[in-house]
Amino acid sequence: AICLQESKLSNNLIEESRTLIKNYTLSGTSNDAHLSQRERLRYKEMKGVSTLLRNDHQKEQATVRYKKGSTISHTRTVKIKIDDKRELLIINTYLPTRGGKRGYNNKFEEAIEEIKEVIEQNSTLKTSFLVIGDMNYCPWGHKKDKKRTKLMQKFVQDTGGKYLVTKKPSHKSRSHSDTWCHLDGAKVSKDMQIEEMRILTPSDFPEAT
Questions:
Q1: Could you give the CA distance from residue 186 to residue 131 in angstroms, rounded to a whole number?
Q2: Which of 189, 184, 131, 136 is closest to 159 using CA atoms?
Q3: What is the predicted pLDDT for the residue at 42?
Q4: Using an 8 Å Cβ cutoff, are 28 and 9 in contact?
Q5: Taking the CA of residue 21 as centre, how many other CA atoms within 13 Å lie in the half-sphere pointing to its CB?
Q6: Distance between CA 34 and CA 128 in Å, rounded?
Q7: How far apart are CA 8 and CA 178, in angstroms?
Q8: Which residues, including other chains, have CB under 8 Å from residue 167's CB and lie 6 or more apart?
Q9: CA–CA dist 57, 35 (Å, integer)
Q10: Residue 172 and residue 184 in contact, taking contact as beta carbons nearer than 8 Å
Q11: Would you place residue 43 in the very low, low, confident or very high pLDDT band (cuts 50, 70, 90)?
């Protein structure tokens, strides 16, 4: 699976683009579904997530369960059956930025609760999970943001496993030149292990892709 964040795709565009990329099927979540028509016209924030799953894995997909009445706006989840004894829950997420906006940590907490709820609703003895994406949290750069730090610490504690980031920083600040941070991350269940997380360069992609 290929997980994309800040895709900025409306629900209509997601549907129109489902089979646009050869050998893959696109699915996604757009916050525009939860806005009024007036708000939707002004919608400019880089939100939304999209997941590309190879067509030869489509038959291995299992149904993702959601709590009745839940609003899913920060994640896109696929569940893949590995074999009769194991299944993998892949939660693609884009957590709200700090951005100096009022109430930003309330939205961050809302997103964290959404992820926890998806894990809880789909966890069995044979389920492993991977939460991956733009977490908008840097373990070093956001130390002074005590609320966000506590929310992340509690998230890791409540769900078990580890939280991982790349060795090199993955984001350059848009407002502060020469400032880099580790905003991308992965949260894995305690039965999983990621051998390497690294930042891709153009040389990692085949020509003409």
A1: 6
A2: 189
A3: 45
A4: yes
A5: 15
A6: 30
A7: 26
A8: 197, 198
A9: 33
A10: no
A11: very low
| CA 178 to each of CA 85, 175, 202: distance values in angstroms, whole numbers, following the listed order | 48, 10, 21
Count of CB atoms situated within 10 Å of the CB of 164: 16
What are the residues facing 162 on neighbouring strands?
A: 188
The token pair that represents 88 in the structure block = 């993998």
Least confident of 27-31, 94-98, 201-205: 27-31
9 by Cβ neighbours in 10 Å (0-12 / 13-18 / 19+) ranks as buried
Q: What is the pLDDT of residues 144-175, one digit of tens each?
A: 889 999 999 999 999 999 999 988 888 776 66
**What region does 160 belong to: left with phi over 0, alpha with psi -120 to 50, or beta?**
left
Cross-strand bridge partners of residue 208? none
User: Which of 103-139 are b and which e, b meaning 16 or more Cβ less than 10 Å from the residue's Cβ?
Assistant: ebbeebbebbebbeebbeebeeeebbbbbbbbbbbbe
